[in-house]
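Quick one, T. Sequence first:
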Amino acid sequence: MQKTHPNVQAVQYALEAARARDGSGAAAKVQLLPDAVHTAAAAAAALDVEVGQIANSLIFDADGEPLLVLTSGAHRVDTAKVAAELGVTALRRATPEFVREHTGQPIGGVAPIGHPKPVRTLVDTALRQYPEVWAAGGVPRAVFPTTYAELLRITAGTAATVA
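Structure tokens:
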């Protein structure tokens, strides 16, 4: 029997503690895919869903503080727009080391939850058009289904237009 990765366990525990639900109203559960999916397109193909249903978890360095942007896989974050809206002077893609320091998770597998401490989070309003969205589960081959409303709730995130 294969042991569950600690990151996946942390995400599942966080889902359970938040009583998170998927698109059908059932308890959200982390699922392991056969292979790692490092991009929204790869995740969408593996799950047989639209790329826009993938909630990319992107960590940015916002004036030295972590910022998690959960954006639809169908587009890119406009960093200048987000920086201006947040009032930060510099919003940069974080280094792998910065990501691990603040989330405990690797790039390509960063979940919206399950971090050592809460991370300020923006949730892309483009995700609300989908009855179910998929987010990373702590490692590149782990994912879980949820909804836009649940992402806002379980992350204590702020709805934002980020593209």
